[in-house]
Amino acid sequence: MSDRRPRAARRRSPEPQPAAASPGPAAGPDGPSVVQATLYRDGRRVASPATLAETYRQLREHPDGMAWIGLHRPTEQELHSLAAEFDLHELAVEDALEAHQRPKLERYGDTLFVVLRAARYLDAQEEVDFGELHVFVGPDFLITVRHGAAPDLSAVRRRMEENPALLSLGPEAVLYAILDAVVDGYAPVVAGVQNDVDEIETEVFGGDPAVSRRIYELSREMVEFQRATRPLVGMLHALMAGFAKYGTDEELQRYLRDVADHVTHTSERVDGFRQALTEILTVNATLVTQQQNAEMRALAEAGFEQNEEIKKISSWAAILFAPTLVGTIYGMNFDNMPELHWAGGYPFAVVLMAVVCTSLYVVFKKKDWL
Q1: Quick check: 266 and 273 in contact, CB under 8 A?
Q2: β-bridge mates for residue 111, sequence order
Q3: For the whole model, what pTM was predicted?
């Protein structure tokens, strides 16, 4: 990436193309596509062109300068204009247009194409928002194509402009500063997720029925977080492997090693979060099952008690029904009922009622219904 060959040898067309002469800040639903275009020389800002065409012209007039062009969801015309001017590979341009790419590092000649996934924690929603950043790094230019709110590259630009010695090292220094900003942006996310995990643990053992959904949603975010951090570890090691080949400045090497340490730590934390959420989900499922079993047991016990009460009520109803039946029969007043005119008829009826009731009582008592 430190190749400083003549510009004419590195461009498809050293002259402005008519079709690409007028792309400026294109207003879209989220504002202008060209966030900022700046020219630097020896680590200091020398110009801030208003259009891409003006940026191309001034960069040609200062072959020892560096252009830093920031775009936010650019149009196809703008990216094709940049591709024609800076000899960007068509596959990289296609990726930058479509977005939704995995983090990766590709080299096309003397141009490096980097895809990063930035993240930020939204306190109000208690969720993680992911953004996508595409970076083209050439010998004398750096182009950032941002999809989403994160990361905030204005802070990176201010930091670099406040350190001209670092900025004078060229586009590689800016790339490492962007990598550092993206990785540092993971720290608040890790802190927010840690707080969420702690809250979820409390909710799980507190019996909150809505906690399962929260665990599931946070687990999905951690899967997305893993997809952002895991490839970045390999990308940074690939960059470090090219230190000697591309003559990377020692100061930048130290920066990159520090970034690699941070992203490795973040990746390990994210892996730990996902494992913890898996275990919490298992514990929650166990607790839910235990709670359901306890509720079923309580229902069964209530049903058993209800059955016992029904047995008692039914037994006493049967005992009381027996004398009622005998009394009803002898209360029909038919003429041909011998017992009606029998002197012992009344005692006989009373004794019959007592015998029937006693017999039923004994039977129900043996069956433990009373």
Answers
A1: no
A2: 108
A3: 0.71
Buried b (16+ CB within 10 A) or exposed e, 72-93: bbbeeebbbbbbbbbbbbeebb
Structure-block tokens of residue 36: 């900022």
Tell me what percent of the chain is helix, strand and coil, each rounded to the nearest 5.
60, 15, 25
Residue 52 CA to residue 67 CA, distance in Å, equals: 11
Predicted confidence (pLDDT) per residue in 189-246, tens digit: 999 999 999 988 888 887 777 788 888 889 999 999 999 998 988 888 888 877 777 6
Distance of alpha carbon 246 from alpha carbon 228, whole angstroms: 26
CA–CA gap between residue 75 and residue 210 (Å, rounded): 43
The strand ranges marked E within 42-188 are 44-47, 66-72, 104-108, 111-122, 127-137, 141-147
Instruction: Write the CA distances from 4 to 58, 65, 139, 177, integer angstroms.
Output: 17, 11, 6, 21
Cα-based distances in Å from 232 to 103, 118, 324: 6, 11, 91
Torsion sign, CA atoms 32, 92, 247, 86: negative
Residues 337/330, Cβ–Cβ less than 8 Å: yes
- Residue 21 to residue 57: CA distance in whole angstroms: 10
Q: Residue 63, preceding bond cis, omega within 30 degrees?
A: no
What digits encode the pLDDT tens for the residues 77-110? 889 999 999 999 999 999 888 877 888 999 998 8
Q: How much is the CA Rg of the chain, to the nearest whole Å?
A: 41
CA dist 154 → 1, 203, 351, 359 (Å): 24, 39, 106, 97
Q: What is the chain's length?
A: 370
